[in-house]
Amino acid sequence: MHRRQLLQGAAGALGAAALSAVPAAHAQSGAPFPSRPVKLVIAFPAGGPTDITMRQLAENASKLLGQPVIIENKPGAGGTLPAQQLQSSPADGYTLAQIPLGVFRLPYTTKIAWDPVKDISYVINVTGYAFGIVVPADSPMKTWADFVAYAKANPGKLSYGSTGTMTSPHLTTELVAQQLGLQLNHIPYKGSADLMQAVVGGHVMAAADSTGFAPQVEAGKLRVLNTWGEQRLAKFPDAPTLKELGLNVVQNSPFGIGAPRGTPAAVVKRLHDAFKTAMEDPAYVQALNRYDMLPNYMSSEDYARFAQDTFTREKALVEKLGLAKPA
Question: Which residues does residue 39 pair with via DSSP β-bridges, in sequence order?
């Protein structure tokens, strides 16, 4: 009897403890978001323009959210690994990802089991890149006309690096080459920092990149042959745009932040509001200015529409270049 009473007493105590834990657990789950650090996965290595500008943005957002926003670098696969990571992450707002334009090309070139439009909660678009083509300062190619002339005279021999296969620098350069009838030798790298080491070191003859090349140009190690915006860049006023060179090509590759599909609307709004205010901080604007990048705000709703429109447009580009996967 005594043993039975002890067992019944223990069971009762466990039951009471379990019942008392329910409101405690509920209270914990109902804590205001965020109640712990937020991870922001970016698509390119440390030290490049994406890493430097996004770290500043994360630092600004941390102050507003009251929790650290921790950057995790996940380069490779044309900048699509962070978006892929969202597919296996809880939809709680604690894992976010940079969404480069390459994400919208992925289903056309690779077999995947998720949809870039439907399977990401679009939080906010923050900026876009300024791009161009550079060569070493001692290159015999002094102008874009020299580049084109060499490529035409030496089919397949002019090597250029980019920040990865199927990235905007790669596809835009191939589009330009197609329009001019050039055959180039593409060498992919994991990010701007690696690419800059390669072109400065003479491992490739040219580089197509975002303005991560700016410090090397300013140091006299590289020369800019062209840029890809609507207008010339203030930092490189002597470099013509592709449009000025007779090519109907403009590329600025907007990117922003996404969360896993099904992330609660209130969490998405909290993140959106924090990052929107973080974008307005002068320290972030200054970081962007270092690379001739500009703030490019889109709300969650506008960013989702942009994703749908871009998904459709990128299909046409991939097919035009003959890079679509076999049906």
Answer: 70, 95
Other C-beta atoms closer than 10 Å to the C-beta of 86 total 23
**DSSP notation for 142-200:** -SHHHHHHHHHHSTTT-EEEESSTTSHHHHHHHHHHHHHT---EEEE-SSHHHHHHHHH
The residue among 298, 288, 300 whose CA lies nearest residue 53 is: 288
- Looking at residue 327, its pLDDT comes to 65
How far apart CA 280 and CA 271 sit, in angstroms, is 15
Contact status, residue 127 vs residue 296, Cβ threshold 8 Å: yes
In angstroms, the Cα distances linking 141 to 156, 284, 316 are 16, 35, 32
- The count of C-alpha atoms lying within 13 angstroms of the C-alpha of 312, restricted to the half-sphere facing its C-beta, is 5
Q: Decide if 249 contacts 175 (C-beta within 8 A).
A: yes
For the cut 80, the answer to whether the pLDDT of residue 149 exceeds it is yes
Alpha helices by DSSP H, listed for 187-246, are: 192-200, 214-218
Whether 18 shows a pLDDT value over 90: the answer reads no
Beta carbons of 182 and 146 less than 8 angstroms apart: no
**Nearest CA-CA partner of 176 in 197, 158, 201:** 158
Integer Cα distance of 299 and 263 in angstroms = 16
Q: What is the pLDDT of residues 246-276, one digit of tens each?
A: 999 999 999 999 999 999 999 999 999 999 9
Mapping DSSP to helix (H, G, I), strand (E, B) and coil, where does residue 38 land?
A: strand
d(CA 101, CA 321): 16
Question: What is the model's pTM?
Answer: 0.82
Q: Is the peptide bond before 82 cis (omega within 30 degrees of 0)?
A: no
Both tokens of residue 307? 């994703």
Q: How confident is the model at residue 31 (pLDDT cuts 50, 70, 90)?
A: confident
Task: Determine the residue type at 168.
Answer: S
